[in-house]
Amino acid sequence: MQELKKRKEEVKVAKEQKVKAIVRTYYIIEGGKIKLKNKKCSKCGSIMAHHMKPYERWACGKCGYTEFIGGSKKR
Ligand SMILES: [Zn+2]
């Protein structure tokens, strides 16, 4: 939960400072707003869903493929 809050704050700060490409290519900066860019599954090619909990990730509803977004990988 704290991780999520922290992440949102990071985005907010980045937006204020007008920093480009915080999270690689998954976001598009458009008119000062950060938009999520839908990602296609690399396994079956269908549109993936973006989830913030418990970790920020892309998940495919068809084949179950999940791709974690940077910074979420912990061991
Ligand atoms: Zn898939």
UniProtKB/TrEMBL annotation:
Keyword Ribosomal protein: yes
GO BP field: translation
GO molecular function, one term: zinc ion binding
Alphabetized InterPro entries for the sequence: Ribosomal_eS31, Ribosomal_eS31_arc, Ribosomal_zn-bd
Entry keywords, A to Z: Metal-binding, Ribonucleoprotein, Ribosomal protein, Zinc, Zinc-finger
Cited Pfam families: Ribosomal_S27 (PF01599)
Domain Small ribosomal subunit protein eS31 stretches: 23-66
SUPFAM superfamilies linked: Zn-binding ribosomal proteins
Residues reported to bind Zn(2+): C41, C44, C60, C63
Annotated GO CC locations: ribonucleoprotein complex; ribosome
Keyword RNA-binding: no
Domain of life: Archaea
Co-factor note (free text): Binds 1 zinc ion per subunit.
Cofactor(s) the protein requires to work: Zn(2+)
Family indicated by similarity: Belongs to the eukaryotic ribosomal protein eS31 family.
Subunit structure, interactors included: Part of the 30S ribosomal subunit.
Protein name: Small ribosomal subunit protein eS31
Species of the source: Sulfolobus tengchongensis
Record gene name: rps27ae
